[in-house]
Specification:
This protein is mainly beta. The chain has a domain at 43-85. It is 0% helix and 35% strand.
Length: 97
């Protein structure tokens, strides 16, 4: 099954969280927080202006982004956990140096 986001919605796949702390302590699965970083899987066409034209999106497929802790709606598609959220809920795009 394929998902196509509508308007200014974005589909994100969470990136895996760290298994160890900086000090080398292994974190058990039950104590881990869900990561707030993810990779954009799909992007909608953007919001529509008053005259009906689609406004562009700032994020694109493949971008790594940061989003709020309680943002979006979690869905499971083909056994894969995804998040659907609005572009406004994305806090930043992570740029690799």
């Amino acid at each position: 099954m394929a998902l196509k986001p509508l308007q200014d919605r974005v589909i994100i796949k969470r990136l895996s969280s760290e298994e160890k702390t900086a000090g080398g302590i292994i974190i058990p699965e039950t104590a881990k927080e869900k990561p707030l970083e993810g990779k954009v899987v799909a992007v909608g066409p953007g919001k529509k202006s008053d005259d009906g034209k689609a406004l562009g999106m700032d994020v694109k497929k493949g971008d790594v982004v940061l989003f709020g802790k309680y943002s979006g709606t979690e869905v499971k598609v083909d056994g894969e956990e995804l998040i659907i959220l609005r572009e406004d809920d994305i806090l930043a795009i992570v740029e690799k140096k």
